[in-house]
Amino acid sequence: MILSKTTEYALSILGFMATRNRELYPAEYLYAQLKIPRQYLRRLLTDLTKKGFIASTRGRNGGFVFARDLSTINFSQVIDAMEGPEAMNTCLLGFAACIADHPCAMHDLWLEARAKMVETLTKTSLADLREKYLKDQVTNDK
Amino acid sequence: MILSKTTEYALSILGFMATRNRELYPAEYLYAQLKIPRQYLRRLLTDLTKKGFIASTRGRNGGFVFARDLSTINFSQVIDAMEGPEAMNTCLLGFAACIADHPCAMHDLWLEARAKMVETLTKTSLADLREKYLKDQVTNDK
DNA sequence: ATAATATACTACAAAAATGTAGCATTTTAT
DNA sequence: ATAAAATGCTACATTTTTGTAGTATATTAT
After folding, report:
1. Average pLDDT over residues B57-69
2. B116–A116 CB contact, under 8 Å
3. Can you say whether the dihedral through the CA atoms of B122, A93, A110, B2 is positive or negative?
4. From the CA of A57, how many Å to the nearest CA of chain B?
């Protein structure tokens, strides 16, 4: 499972915005591009605004823009914001077998495996994503 | 999020059974030990039986035993069986930004990060878990 | 001013995951 | 034979996640 649909949506939205060249992204435009259910998308955009990743302007010519530099937003931050910071921190074997006894045997291995994934997600910013995307595009168009 | 509660339960059950010295594990005993909701636990045990990890015997003196050698059951197999084989294989940025265009820029990084985790989960069997558990126990008791 | 085009909010609906209850069936000790 | 102790099964209940509808509010072009 790894990520909830909601978190995937959030990453999809931010990832899309980060790799295009618009200033402003109205919800309706994102809907047309991403096909995330319309009202759900709007709610997520409001959430992402409240969480400080993007900023909104209302009224005609309104829409969403990034609230801070792409280089300051990494994937772990987005995941933590959407799923809660504890989501990536539970023991693989759960409570019982782990806590009841002594730290579960799998704990170390699991921590290590997960740590590597989290590290990659932490060190990669939306700016990195954009850079990679643009480079790939040049290569493909050639 | 990473794993559903159901999958955590399954790993908890099998991990617990793998690290103790009983032959036979009746549901009621596992309930007492693991505190997984009683009826849900029973259902999971039936599922795990149908999926071939454990075998059941009914009637008095019945219960559950491993259906195959501990060394032939790894964590990936259990996760795949519980969540479906595709669960660990979706693109981080989801469909739209990824497929609509060209393979999404994040894809490679994501694949790599996840692959490491899956590798660890694949190469670790319940026999490894048991071994580690027993070793830790000796150390702790000293 | 007003209409058009945005986001914000609230309440509800549907689907999926998790949890519960109760009875049926099987086996074995007595 | 019968009671006890176990799994198997089905149907329902609750909770969480995901999705929908409609109205309120803000901004700007005309």
Report:
1. 97
2. yes
3. positive
4. 24
Helix A5-19 and helix A38-50, axial crossing angle in degrees, nearest 10: 80
B55 φ, ψ (degrees, to nearest 5):
-130, 150
Cβ within 8 Å of residue B135, ≥6 positions away: none
Quick one: pLDDT at residue B95?
A: 45
Q: What is the pLDDT of residue A81?
A: 95
Nearest Cα residue to B91 out of A82, A2, A131, A78: A2
Domains along the sequence of chain A with CATH: 1-73 (1.10.10.10), 74-124 (no CATH)
Is A9 within 8 Å of chain B by CB?
Answer: yes
Distance in Å, residue A59 CA to nucleotide D25 C1': 9
HSE-up of residue A98 (Cα within 13 Å, Cβ side): 14
Higher-pLDDT residue of A108 and B62 is B62
Residues of B in contact with A92 (CB under 8 A): 3, 8, 11, 75
The per-residue pLDDT for B99 is 46
- Report the gap between the CA of B136 and the closest CA in chain A (Å): 7
Q: What angle do CA B66, B72, B78 make, to 5 degrees?
A: 75
